Amino acid sequence: MSSTLPPPRHVRLFRNGANQAVRIPREFELPGNEALMRREGNTLVIEAVSPPQKGTLAGLAAVLATMDTLDEDFPDVDLGLRPLDDIDP
What we know:
The protein is α+β, with helices and mostly antiparallel strands. It has a domain of 53 residues. It has 1 helix and 4 strands. The strands form 2 sheets. The protein has a two-stranded antiparallel sheet. A two-stranded antiparallel ribbon has the order 3-4. It starts with 12 loop residues before the first strand and ends in a 24-residue tail after the last helix. The model has no long low-confidence stretch (mean pLDDT 86).
């Protein structure tokens, strides 16, 4: 990505089903396949969403969000063990 921003470009709005849409010219393309959009007055701001990085809490949260919930109880891992105060050093 270059350090200078491209100049503004005139674009047309169109309908895509029930949604209003705009084609993003190549020089304004964002990485990835998701973005955040918000309105600031008459301005729409579109920001790229960075994918979570492996080895981070955000990466772990993204993986956990894709997993189904467990419907079973955790096993009793202490079953059959003597209480800790009964163990001689």
